[in-house]
Amino acid sequence: MNVVSTKLCTYLQDHHAGSVTAREMLAKAISDDDPDQAFYFQLDRDIAEDQTVLETLIERLGAKESLPKKVGAWVAEKMARLKLGASADPLANLEFLEALTLGVQGKLCLWKSLESLPDTFPARQGLDLPGLVDRARDQLDRIEPKRLESFAQVAAGLESTS
């Protein structure tokens, strides 16, 4: 594997680790009988599909998933769970949704970056990058109303204490 492929692999493995963290966080929301359980389940399914694309890309570049990064993502999720997570607490829920937003925004940047590679780049061939970009934008569009709703709940709590 050449230096460019190694660096690209590291970049993809970092995104894969982020998706592991997101799915762990979503799994908790799904298992907690959250009122938005169906919303989180669909988001998890989308992220699982994106993970498969990342795994395929990593394999095409001749590498494997990074076990240390995967373990690191798992540990990071467990630490984040102390503070973040879909929850009846509006602030915790807001921070959970913002963490998901940041992750999806990063994924959108990844797909757009890969679009900038020449069509002849082997790892890019056969990918529906415009579709992946659209799916990331759709995820952001679905998260944003929930995030704003959580923020409104936090802000309402602030008004009642003033």
Structure, briefly:
The protein is an all-alpha fold. The protein has helices spanning 3-31, 37-60, 67-81, 90-115, 129-161. α1 (3-31) runs antiparallel to α2 (37-60) and α4 (90-115) runs antiparallel to α5 (129-161).
Helix-and-strand structural type? mainly alpha
Helix-strand sequence: HHHHH
Write down how many β-strands occur, each being a DSSP E stretch of 2 or more residues: 0
What fraction, in percent, of the residue positions are helical? over 70%
Overall 3D geometry?
Answer: elongated
Oligomer status: single chain
Note the gap between the termini. 60 Å
Give the mean pLDDT: 84
Tell me the major beta sheet: none
Poorly predicted regions: none
Rg, Å, rounded: 17 Å
Enumerate how many helices there are, as a single number: 5
- Approximate strand percentage: under 5%
What do you see in this structure?
The protein is mainly alpha-helical and 162 residues long. It is built from five helices and no strands. Helix 1 (3-31) packs antiparallel against helix 2, helix 1 (3-31) packs parallel to helix 3 and helix 1 (3-31) runs antiparallel to helix 4. The protein is elongated.
